[in-house]
Sequence to fold (752 residues):
Amino acid sequence: MKKFSVLFSAAVIATGLCMAQSPEVKEDFKPSTKNQPGQQYPMVNSQGYARFRISAPQAQAVSVSLGHGGVRGGTDLVKDEAGVWTGTTSAPLDEGFHYYHLNIDGGTFNDPGTNNYYGSTRWESGIEIPAHDAAFYEERDVPHGFVQQILFWSESTNSLRRAFVYTPPTYYSDKAKVRYPVLYLQHGWGEDETAWMTQGHANLIMDNLIAEGKIQPFIIVCTYGMTNEGFRPGRPGGNRFGGVEAFQKVLCDELVPYVDAHFRTLANKDNRAMAGLSMGGMETHSITMARPEMFGYYGLLSGGQYNPTEIKDKNQVKKIFMSCGSKERPDGINTATRAMKEAGYDVMGYVSEGTAHEFLTWRRSLYQMALFFWGK
Amino acid sequence: MKKFSVLFSAAVIATGLCMAQSPEVKEDFKPSTKNQPGQQYPMVNSQGYARFRISAPQAQAVSVSLGHGGVRGGTDLVKDEAGVWTGTTSAPLDEGFHYYHLNIDGGTFNDPGTNNYYGSTRWESGIEIPAHDAAFYEERDVPHGFVQQILFWSESTNSLRRAFVYTPPTYYSDKAKVRYPVLYLQHGWGEDETAWMTQGHANLIMDNLIAEGKIQPFIIVCTYGMTNEGFRPGRPGGNRFGGVEAFQKVLCDELVPYVDAHFRTLANKDNRAMAGLSMGGMETHSITMARPEMFGYYGLLSGGQYNPTEIKDKNQVKKIFMSCGSKERPDGINTATRAMKEAGYDVMGYVSEGTAHEFLTWRRSLYQMALFFWGK
Fold:
C-alpha cells in the first residue's frame, strides 16, 4: 500500500498534475523556523504536514526518518527530472519540535536545510510545527536575560566541563545586588547542555514570564549529564552515560559550589531546585534522594515519579513537580501526584495536551514548573 | 593524473594490500578534535593528512570538498565491500581549522562525524589539523571567563539580535568592580557571531593570556555582521549582506550602548576597539572611518589595510593592527605597515607563517592584537 502511494505520488509529481500528496493537504507551506538562513525547505503547513526537499541527482533512495504523530516509519522522497527529491508526510506531525535525519543510499546524514540540534548522541536535523500556544516562548521586545557559557575545571573527572547559566534580565541592572534562587535543569539521554537553551527556549520562556511579572526571577544552570567526558565533543566515547554517581559528584560537589562562588545565588537548599527531562529526570530522582541536603525543589519531566515511601524525611523537600505529555503515560503522573498529595507533600502534576516524549512537553512543563516553584 | 591515482587507490584498497594512499603516509591517524562525541572519523595523522570515512552503501559517488594546503580539488572516497567509503587527502593540509562538506551523489551534505560550524552561509563540517603552536588556545586548569549570549532589540532592523560577550575571569570575582576595555570583533563573510568563540577559540586565547599575566583583561563582543536579518536563523534571506551602513547603525547606535549599559565597560573610544576578519575587516575599515568618535583601536585581520591619506585626523586613532597569513598577500600588510609607521601611526603588522585565509591565521592574529592593544 505504501509502495503504491509512493509510486502514485511519483506519477502525479512527474506529470505535474498536482503538487499535494493527498487532496486535503493545504498548500500553505512555509519554511520551518528551525531552517538555516535563507533555506526554504523543509516547510510546514497550517495543518502540521511537513514537506522535505533534497537535491541529490545521482542518489538511489532518499528518505526522512521522522516518524511522529500520525506518521509511521518516516517519509520516502521522490525524485523529479532535475534530480531533486521531494516528499510530504503522510499525516500531520504533533505540534512542537522534532529531531530527524535523512537516509541517503543507506547512510545517515542531516538535512542541509535545517540547523543542527544535539539529540540521540549526534547533531540531528530539527523541524518545528508551530504550536497553538507558542506565545509563551516567542521573541518579544522585552528585557532579555543572558545565557552564559561557563567552563569549570572538574577534579573528579580531570576535565574542563561546560555549563550554560541563564541570568534574569534584572541580574545585571539592579543596584540592590539581589541574590536569586537557582534551578539545575538537565537534558535527556543523547542530548547535551545546549538542549534547554536551544530547542527548549528556556531563556525565552523565562524572559516572558518575568516580563509579565508572573514569577520571581531565578537562575537556570544546564550542564552535561553524561559524566565520563569533559565538554569537548571531540573526545572519543564522549556520549556514554558514566553513571549517576559520577554525575552526582560533578553536580553537587563541583558545579554547585562553582556557581555559588561566581553568581549572586541564594546559596542554600531552600532556594535550589533540580529538575530534568527523561534521563535527566532519572538523575534528578536519584540525586535528590541520595543528597537530600542539596535541593529543596524536585522536578521530573517525562522522567518518572516520586512515591511517598522513598522519601526519608518529609521536611527535606519543599515542592515536587511531575509531568509528561498526554501521549506518554499520564496515568502514572496522575496516580503519583494523588499519592504524594495524600501523604502531605506540596506537589503539582501536569500533563501536556497532545504531545509525546518531545520538547513541547518540556517547554510547557518548564513554564508550569516555574510558576509552581517561584510564581508570584 | 588525478583520475589515475583515484583508480590506483581504489585498486590497492580493494585488494587490501595497503591502507595508505602513498608509501610515505604515516599510519598514526587519530580522531580530529572537532569530531562529534564518540566519532572516530575523520582522522588526522602527525603529518597533516586527513582520512575520511562515510557509510552510504548504495551511493554512487562520495567526495570531500576540502581543498587546502597541497590538496587540490578535494578528495574522492572509494567504497569497500561493506559499503563504507574511505579516502585520504593526496597531501598534508595546512595546520589549523578547515571547513568542508561532502558531495554525495551530486548533493551537498555534512560529514556526520564532525560538529558543525557556520561558514559559507551554511553549517559546514569542520576538521582540525593540530598546529605546532596550539598551546595558546589549549584547555587548561586556569580561571575561565564566561561567554554570554545576549539578546538585544534592534529598532533600526525591528528584530531581536544576538551577540556573544566574553568577560574575563576576574569580571565577576573582583570586589573593586573594575571596568574593562572592549573589543568588538567581527566574523567573515558567510560566518556568524558564533565563529570567534567556537572555531576561533577567542575565549580560550584570552583565558590563557590573562592567566599568564600578559595582557590587561578586556571584554570581547561578537555580533552578526549581516544586518538585514535578526538572530533567528530560520528567517528566509538571512544570509544576505545588508550593507555596511545598516550594520554600522546596529553596532554603533544599538549594540555599543546596550553593552555599555549592561556590562562594566570603560565606555569611551580610548578603551574601545573594533576589529574583524575578512569581510569583518572591510566593515571595520568602513565604520572606523565613518564614525571616528566610536573606536580608538582598529584591527584588520586578512581584511585589507589602512593608508595614511584616508585618515582625516591622526589623533582619532591610538593603535592600528593589520595581519594576514603568509599564504595570502603579506606584501600588502608589510607595505601598508611601513607607510603607516612612516606617517607616525602606532601600527603593528603581523604575518601568520604557513597559513592562508583561515582560522589559524585569525587565532594567532587575535593573540598578537591583544598583546599589541592591551599588553602588559
User: Anything to note?
Assistant: Confidence is low (pLDDT under 50) at residues 1-21, 228-239 of chain A. The first strand of chain A starts at residue 30 and ends at 31. The radius of gyration of chain A is 22 Å.
